[in-house]
Each structure stands twice: as C-alpha cells, then as structure tokens.
Design goal:
The protein has about 270 residues and is α+β, with helices and mostly antiparallel strands. It has helices spanning about 15-20, 110-125, 155-175, 195-210, 235-245, 250-265; strands spanning about 1-5, 10, 25, 35-50, 50-60, 65-80, 130, 140, 145-150, 180-185, 215-220, 225-230. Strands 1, 2, 3, 4, 5 and 6 form a six-stranded antiparallel sheet that branches.
Length: about 270
C-alpha cells in the first residue's frame, strides 16, 4: 500500500512524521527531517493494544541529492480513532400522553378506556385515521389499508375467543389489513395474576403469530409505551415503533415483579 508518491510536491521526512501524528500514530522515520521522501510503502502492519508496528519501504533523497530505497521497522503508540457520536434516536412518539400515578385500575371500564386511548393515540400519530366498522372495537385506515383492533382487559377465555375472531376476520377481509388485540400490560388489579396472563400469552403466541394477529400490551402507567407479544404491523411508522418497544418488555416485567415482591415483604 503506497502512502506517499508525489512527483510535483517535495515531501520531507518532517512532513511524514507530522502526518503520522495527525492520524494518531506516534512513530517517526529514522531519517533526517530535511530528507525528501519520494515514496513510501507500508509492507506490513500489526496492531496491538495501544500501539502499532509498521514495516516501511521508503524511497528518499538525502542532503547530497543521492536517492536511496531502504526498509525501516517502526513501532509506537497509536491513539484510537475518535468516532463521532451517533445522532440521537428519533423519539418513539412526538406527542406524549400524560402518565398515570399508579399502575392499578379501579374497574374494567377504566382499564378499557385507558388502553383504547393509548392505541388510538399511537395509530393516529403514525398516520392512521379513525373509521367505522362493525367487525372490531376500533377501526383505523391509512392509504386504503385498515387496522382492526379488539380491546380486552383480561387474558381469559373471552379474550381468546375475540382473538380467534380476528383470525376469522383476516381470512374474510384479507392480509392487506392489520389485526390486533390490545390488553393492559399487567392485569392483577383486575383479577388476572401475572402467571395466568403469561400462560395465556404463551399458549396462543405461536398460533396468533402464524395467523398474523398482533397482541399489544399497554403499559399500566405510561400509555405511550405499548409492547408487542406477537407480530409487528406492516405500516412502516408503527412497525418501527413496535420494533423498538419489543426489547423493553423484559426489563419492565422484571421491575414490576421486583416492586411486587418488595410490597409483599414490607
């Protein structure tokens, strides 16, 4: 690999040494700084922690105008390249709904109103317009493609039946639309222990994923956070949202369990 080869510009050993320093490589050619370098090849390069070793073939002219070509082994400290910081990730949502002061619900209607507000706000922000349909609890549309949503506040037999209705609805209406059942992330205040909720999800997860039915859980405190348990919607904006949210569920669940244990032991 040729590092220097310029017939029109007189490059000195001093210039080469400065160039190395500018690149974070602290080595110097073992030649007088006023010698002219006519060409330089890096024959071998070896990195090690904090430094670098180079085998160089240098063509140079000495102060008597005599041209030489010689090999030099150089070793020195090397600074890590400072890469620019990545741009901050775009926010999941531009307009945020207010958070709740507690993660429990007084009754099923409160929970239902809450998850309805959360999924409606998300889909409208991602470009969907609300519409009317007798096939599902909520209907949204974007560029002629529908998004049909059923709301259930407890993972029980009724919720399973309504999820399966979405499967039948997809067979009837086709795969160009998106279908999902939306639930609260934690349902213990409504009578469904976390172990039963997770058992319900685990039992239906593969089936609903194959049938392309989303299961989305709204965070009990922050309605701006909705976690996907099966598939992602097809529309790019809302799909990106759920892709980023999918990695956060395990942490949220762990914190919830830890907080519950603390309350039970105090």
């Amino acid at each position: 690999m040729t590092t220097v080869e310029d017939a029109d510009k007189r490059v000195t050993v001093r210039d080469i040494n400065k160039s190395f320093v500018q690149k974070g490589i602290f080595i110097t050619l073992p030649l007088a700084e006023n010698f002219i370098v006519k060409g330089m090849d890096i024959l071998e390069k070896q990195h090690y922690p904090g430094g670098i070793k180079l085998l160089l073939r240098v063509k140079f002219v000495d102060d008597k105008e005599i041209e030489h070509s010689d090999l030099f082994y150089c070793e020195g400290r090397m600074e890590k390249e400072k890469r620019p910081a990545p741009p901050p990730a775009a926010p999941l949502k531009l307009n945020l709904l207010p958070t709740r002061s507690q993660g429990t619900f007084t009754d099923e209607q409160e929970a239902r109103d809450y998850i309805k507000m959360a999924i409606t706000h998300l889909l409208q922000e991602k470009g969907y317009s609300p519409g009317e349909s007798t096939d599902a609890d909520l209907y949204f549309e974007q560029e002629g493609k529908g998004f049909l949503v059923n709301l259930e506040v407890k993972c029980d037999e009724k919720a399973e039946e309504r999820a399966k209705r979405l499967v039948e609805l997809r067979r009837k209406k086709g795969s160009t639309h998106d279908y999902a059942i939306v639930i609260p992330a934690f349902q213990e205040s409504l009578g469904i222990p976390l172990r039963l909720q997770e058992r319900w999800i685990a039992r239906l997860q593969d089936y609903l994923s194959v049938q392309r039915i989303g299961v989305f859980a709204v965070d009990n405190i922050d309605p701006n956070r909705i976690y996907p348990f099966t598939i992602y919607p097809k529309a790019r904006g809302v799909m990106q949202y759920f892709v980023r949210m999918s990695s956060q569920w395990s942490l949220v669940r762990s914190r919830y369990v830890q907080d519950r244990v603390k309350k039970e032991t105090t």
